[in-house]
Amino acid sequence: MVYIQSFKGQNWLISQSIRDMIPKNHICFFIEEFVEKLDFSGFDMIYEGPGHPAYHPRIIMKILLQGMLCKERSSRKLAGACRENFVFMYLAEKVQPNFRTIARFRKNNASFVKEAFKETIKLASENNLIDLSLLCIDGTTIKANANRKKSVKREHIEKLDSIIEKMVEEDIKQDEIDEEIYKDKEENLTDMDKRDFAKIINDYKKAKDKHKIKEKVEKVKDEASRDEKAKKLSLTDPSSRMMQNKQRVTELSYNTQLSVSKNQIIVAADVCQDGHDAHQFVPQVENIKQNISLPKKTKFAVDCGYSDAENIKYAEENKIDLYVPSRAQAQKFDGKEESLNNDNYAYDEERNELIADGGRFRFRGVYTRKNGRKVISFYSKKLKKKKDVPFFFRERLRMKEKMESEEGREIYRKRKIVIEPVFGNIKENFNFRQFSLRGLENVKTEINIVCIAHNLKKIYTLKKKKEKKLRQEEGYLSKINEKFIFVENYLFFILNCETASAVMCPERLKGAKA
Fold it and tell me: What's the rounded Cα separation, in Å, for the pair 177 and 33?
């Protein structure tokens, strides 16, 4: 067997410039070009005055974006890459920032990162690389950086607080802790709750800084008072919420909302604590309007999660061309078993009656449910039953008819191939399946960094395709021009030959005329 010859222990002559060690078409040069154009003047005031010189923020920004494209978000590993990887060494401009510097920059510069995200949208727009004929909005759950076992139910927060209070005052015995945990049987603690609760107390009992633990509990109490709907809160990240993911596993997560153009440029991004998408359509539209001006013919496509009647009412009032199916229609369009029929009724506007189940339902009244939603009630004497519909049911019926059209079905089909690959790119290619930071504002910063990286990669790819197409067109025109010149020269040559022949042999020319 013959092996490839190696040169172990031999000297390696490398280029004097790190740039020469990187392929010319590497995306890091595009990242550098983009970051260099950002406005860093706001940092001058922060770093002004005595003290140790700071790393220029453009260096940290370049490292974070390149790290996202390389599936690397750990500040320690990014700091290591600045010492070992040619690409990161080039972007770091031959300095080696500490991992704490990288972590602090990512955590403390939310407004700057948000403006940088807007600059990617502006860049795409200036280069005519963004197609706003269709915008798709969707959400996905991304796991929070929180320990599920260190979460407590709302009703147990006060009990935990009282135990921690005693720990701060004096070192209480284990039997006193057990008594505090198990004495109130009416609170209906399950065996799992008891184990988790006891583990939290024991872990905190071993901790040296009891006042820091007290601060954590206070944050949980503040979050509980702010969000009355939250049933269970995390002690590691109180802002996270229990949500069900695609695998139907309930875990501490955040709901990430993205708005994407037809050619998959992200034009708006947000993170919320709501486990459902129904109330996120209006905030996303407002975010889009802040980031970019939309043409009048822009269409919006969303899935049935946004089919709330209030969203449809908002779209009609603001002249937004919205396409959203009902849950029953979504089952039908996706080829699934049609198990829902909530919108299976018609409306007689003249008589103000619903037509459903083979009978007519007369208007009965309007009432508000416990969740604050207004509902219109209709009743049928013949069938002896009532039917409740949303307050804006007329808008839903109009949308239902709109979605049954060929155009409505086609736009709904396009929605999947526009926005779903974006989530796939973020979760699979960027390996972004869990947040690294904690707290709602911090995770918003993190998702903005992800969106910047996605947009830059997309713009870079689209620019390359556009340049390639222009080169092909120029080559085609060049070939046509060459052929034209050849024909022109050939005709000129023939004409000259005939003229020369007439001058040299006039008798021949006369004979030809005769």
Answer: 60
Instruction: Locate all alpha helices (DSSP H) within 323-439, ordered by sequence.
Output: 327-333, 393-404, 406-424
For tokens 């998408």, name the residue.
Answer: 277
For β-strands 299-302 and 134-143, DSSP reports them as parallel
Q: To the nearest whole number, what is the mean pLDDT of the chain?
A: 84
- 8 Å CB contact between 148 and 200: no
* pLDDT category of residue 185 using cuts at 50, 70 and 90: very low
Cα–Cα–Cα angle for 427, 429, 430, nearest 5°?
Answer: 65
User: Percent of the chain having pLDDT more than 90?
Assistant: 47
End-to-end CA distance of the chain: 86
Q: Measure the CA–CA gap between 96 and 177, rounded to whole angstroms.
A: 49
401 & 303 share domain: yes
Cα(19)–Cα(26) distance, integer angstroms: 10
Q: What is the C-alpha separation between 436 and 72, in angstroms, rounded? A: 11
Distance CA 213, CA 232 (A): 18
Give the 3-state DSSP-derived string for 47-97, with helices as H, strands as E and coil as C.
CCCCCCCCCCHHHHHHHHHHHHHCCCCCHHHHHHHHHHCHHHHHHCCCCCC
Asked if the structure places residue 340 within a domain, the reply is yes
Number of domains in the chain: 3
User: What digits encode the pLDDT tens for the residues 100-116?
Assistant: 999 999 999 999 999 99
Range with the poorest average pLDDT among 6-20, 88-102, 481-495: 481-495
Q: What angle do CA 269, 272, 273 make, to 5 degrees?
A: 165
State which of 186, 214, 236 marks the end of a domain: 236
Higher-confidence residue of 165 and 304: namely 304
Residues 213, 195: Cα–Cα separation, whole Å: 19
Closest among 96, 104, 32 to 65, alpha carbons compared: 32
Is residue 143 situated within a structural domain?
A: no
Tell me which residue range forms the domain holding 214: 148-236
**Could you give the C-alpha distances from 141 to 117, 144, 246, 442, in angstroms and in order?**
21, 9, 8, 16
φ, ψ of residue 506 to 5 degrees: the values are -65, -30
Among 95, 109, 26, 28, smallest CA distance to 62 is for 28
Q: Which backbone phi and psi does 273 adopt, to 5 degrees? A: -100, 0
158 shares a domain with 104: no
CA distance linking residue 155 with residue 236, whole number of Å: 18
Residue 279 and residue 415 share a domain: yes
